[in-house]
Design brief:
Blueprint lengths: L1 E4 L5 H9 L7 H4 L8 H8 L10 H8 L1 H12 L2 E10 L7 E8 L1
Antiparallel strand pairs: 1-2, 2-3
Length: 105
Amino acid sequence: MTAISTVDMGRDEWLEQRRGGIGGSDAPVIMGVNPWRSPMDLWLEKTGEFTEDIDNEAMYWGRTLEDIVAREFTKRTGKKVRRRNAILHHKEYPWMLAFQFLIGR
């Protein structure tokens, strides 16, 4: 796994890095089970055809509650959640991305 530090990374650069692969929040969109976004929306975003920076109330609360959800996940599963200030790329599949959190024992 390779890591790109996000410590001094601005939002625009972070969004550009995110466009370069598929992360966990992209998976339900790809599978067609996200009620707010379609696979076509995601394709347009990843190819740079749609560049509007979308932010809304649900996204705000999702970011705000990340640490609480991570703690509850650990409590229920026994798997430790670690925050990393990095974008992680899989060595064999560099398009596979992980943002902020790692799960382990």
